[in-house]
Amino acid sequence: MAMAAAMRREGKRLAPLMSSQPINNTLRSTLISPLEQTSIGGARSISTQIVRNRMKSVKNIQKITKAMKMVAASKLRAVQTRAENSRGLWQPFTALLGDAIAVDVKKNVVITVSSDKGLCGGINSTSVKISRVLSKLNSGPDKETKYVILGEKAKAQLIRDSKKDIALSLTELQKNPLNYTQVSVLADDILKNVEYDALRIVFNKFQSVVQFIPTVSTVLSPEIVEREAEAGGTLGELDSYEIEGGETKSEVLQNLSEFQFSCVMFNAVLENACSEQGARMSAMDSSSRNAGDMLDRLTLTYNRTRQASITTELIEIISGASALTG
After folding, report:
1. For residues 224 and 253, what is the distance between their CA atoms, to the nearest angstrom?
2. What mean pLDDT comes out for the span 175-180?
3. How far apart are CA 65 and CA 72, in angstroms?
4. Backbone dihedral angles phi then psi of residue 139, each to the nearest 5 degrees
5. Which residues are CB-neighbours of 223 under 8 A, at least 6 positions away?
6. pLDDT of 21
7. With the C-alpha atoms ordered 30, 36, 40, 41, is the resulting torsion angle positive or negative?
């Protein structure tokens, strides 16, 4: 009789667990299986796993930006000296013929020097903006302005709204080390493919790693040089020079104009290459520092999320133990 009474009391105690009614959350936490606990733990660790993956990605990006900065610094050292030495080529022409940027002519050709690769700040956008301004300033009913583009980045921007005005486009100039012979052949191709009264070369002049000056150099055709010389001013001093040999004044001006253009182009390409590498150094340095700041924030977020997950699990363990003892 005593055993039967004890079985009846045990049955009454287990009756709620065997019923089809939903059980409360506290009791469910005490009866959960080890597999389900692992599943819940995995679900809670999803947020920390996402943060860990993000931290890994940021670290990889930081390694890449630091490597790109060092590569840009190495290339800058290689080309900076050549760019500074090339300034002595075009300065005598400026002293002799001047740089008549405000000259009014009918046929203008804007030569935009840019880079083939990105990740170098806004130097390409600046050159494109100046080229567009020059095109608008020299536009009119009886005037014509064409573009000659050097570099992929300027081409990608100007082709959107000025495709019909692009006379010539050349890319991959820096695929091989730049030299005067290569640039003089390039200048000769430009002179053969465009008709011009004034060539306006737009490039970035290198000052320092963090300073680049947008510059416009103007090269006039022999006819315009002769016209401006007859009108007086700076170019009027050409008549004070004596011409030796059998060449006429027109032939001398033709040779001077072509040689001036090749020298200015050589300097412009080197100066822009220096500016590109300097801008890339600055951009990659800023990217590396930003990646470090982001990594610090992600580390703080990861630690907070992990601590919150541990605290939640401890609370649930204590609640389950209290429910079992109660």
Report:
1. 10
2. 82
3. 10
4. -95, 155
5. 197
6. 42
7. positive
